[in-house]
Amino acid sequence: MPALEDKIVQSAVAEVLSAVYEVDFLGFSFGFRPGRSPHMALDGGERRPETFAFLGFTHYCGRTRDGRFIVKHKTEGKRLTRKLTALRQDAWRLMHAPMAAQHRWFAAVLRGHYGYYGRPHNYPALNGFHRQMRRIWLRCLRRRSQKSRRMGWSEFETLTARFPLPTPRITRTWAQARI
Q1: DSSP state, residue 52
Q2: What is the mean pLDDT of residues 150-171?
Q3: Distance of CA 128 to the CA centre of its chain
């Protein structure tokens, strides 16, 4: 019976390799080891998991309203700063473009940002990005001419009533956010 012989050889090789490589594993390593499993690592709760940055998000541990564990996501600070710097330079280039063209560009940038970063628990970062984009646009408008240097927030509000920017919104549902 070749299948039985193969199983015997496999178990013997696994025993030998486990004895050789077990000393290389660190004490807090759990996955695929004899007598340990990833579930033991979660149940042990020896320490709080680290936060980490991946794909433009900072992933961190949190609790739901009913107290269950959840991994939350917020926009990564470094990525946001880099994006705002690039947007300031792009807006500076569009400074003398017609208002409608500027509005289309700012609205497209905001819609794209909300589409990617619009996850549950990330609304404060979306709102901060929206406020910063408004400030960038106001600064560019103030630099357009001598007359517009005196433009204040009230004049800018009148302008944005005519050219409204998209408001921050969560674009992904809870089910989509898990992916």
Answers
A1: E
A2: 89
A3: 14
Domain coverage including residue 98: 76-177
Tens of pLDDT along 10-42?
888 777 777 666 656 555 555 555 666 656 655
**Same domain for 93 and 154?**
yes
The token pair at 29 is: 């390593």
DSSP 147-170: GGGG--HHHHHHHHHHSPPPPP--
CB 177 within 8 A of CB 121: no
Q: At what angle do helices 123-142 and 77-93 cross, to 10 degrees?
A: 30
Q: Read off the tokens for 25.
A: 């594993």
Query: What is the C-alpha to C-alpha distance for residues 49 and 51, in angstroms, rounded to an integer?
Result: 7
- Residue 147, judged by CB atoms within 10 A of its CB (0-12, 13-18, 19+), counts as exposed
Query: Residue 131: inside a domain, yes or no?
Result: yes
The answer to whether residue 88 sits within a structural domain is yes
In SS3 terms, 53-98 reads as EECCEEEEEEECCCCCEEEEEEECHHHHHHHHHHHHHHHHHCCCCC
Asked whether the whole model's pTM tops 0.85, one would answer no
Q: Are 69 and 132 in contact (CB under 8 A)?
A: no
